[in-house]
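Entry 14. Structure prediction run on the chain below.
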Amino acid sequence: MPSKLTRLAALATVFAAVALGTGCDHIDDTRIPAVPVSLTFRGQHTWDVYGVHGALDSRRFIKELHEPAGFYYVVSDCTGFGGLLLVCDVYGAPVVYDLSCPVEQKRDVRIFINDKNVAECPICHSTYAVFENFGMPLSGRAAEFHWGLTRYRIGTNGVDWTITR
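Output returned:
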């Protein structure tokens, strides 16, 4: 019967092999500069009008462009580096990404939802799975280098919905 030390060494070897073997699959979602993110949907009515509802629904929030039209931004609102992409995933849960392409790394190069329901960069044409798989790259330079979209947190207190870093 192997000693406790031998079993621990074997377990450590297996763990190291798994970590090394999956290291290439790591997605880097930190290429967009860390800037303030703070946006609140005040009250259920605001969420009903400007939020996302149902699988594959999406909406962009870019404070400096006053997008979406009619959304009331307050001074403390910050919509990330390139803006926010709010989506409803395939299960109906809200998810938020920065709109900036991690390949281009420019505030004004923003992803869009294409006719195949994936996010695409208009410059490098990298694509990303935003309705499932948490913004993982699907094609292009982003997939080649494992650069995913930056995700932000979204939560509710039962009345307001808040997006933060």
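The mean pLDDT is 87.
Filed with the rest of this week's runs.
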